[in-house]
């Protein structure tokens, strides 16, 4: 397991909304410095918690439809989905402990 997965507008429904596990979506952009800070933390968490949760990344510049549908106004925005619904969201770079608690809130 481990390692985050990239999703697109086209794969969002099957990869996120129809997932049998909670999914943490990292809405990010190439030009975003805080996004680059969060990325290695998410890789670590994916390695540690990959049996309980899927962690995926959606590039908002390449996939604007999904970002617009979920009203992502700043990046990074991290949203946890459970049963096809967004249950909690945070914006901005967060420490690993905060990200783990966000995921645990949906388990």
Short description:
This protein has four helices and five strands.
Low-confidence stretches: none
Mean pLDDT: 95
Query: What's the main sheet like?
Result: 5 strands, mixed
Order of helices and strands: EHEHEHEEH
Q: Please, how many helices?
A: 4
Major beta sheet, strand line-up: 1-3-2-4-5
> Could you tell me the strand content as a percent range?
25-35%
Task: Give the proportion of residues in helices.
Answer: 25-40%
Radius of gyration: 12 Å
User: Overall 3D geometry?
Assistant: globular
Number of strands: 5
Q: How far is the first residue's CA from the last residue's CA?
A: 18 Å
SSE-based structural type: alpha/beta
Q: Can you describe what's shown?
A:
- Strand 4 (77-82) and strand 5 (85-91) form a beta hairpin.
- This protein is 36% helix and 25% strand.
- The chain has a 5-stranded mixed sheet with strand order 1-3-2-4-5, covered by helices on one side.
- It has helices at residues 12-17, 33-49, 64-69, 96-104; strands at residues 5-6, 23-28, 54-59, 77-82, 85-91.
- The model has no long low-confidence stretch (mean pLDDT 95).
- The chain has 107 residues and is of the alpha/beta class.
- It is globular.
Keywords:
107 residues; alpha/beta
Topology:
Blueprint: E1 5-6, H1 12-17, E2 23-28, H2 33-49, E3 54-59, H3 64-69, E4 77-82, E5 85-91, H4 96-104
Parallel strand pairs: 1-3, 2-3
Antiparallel strand pairs: 2-4, 4-5
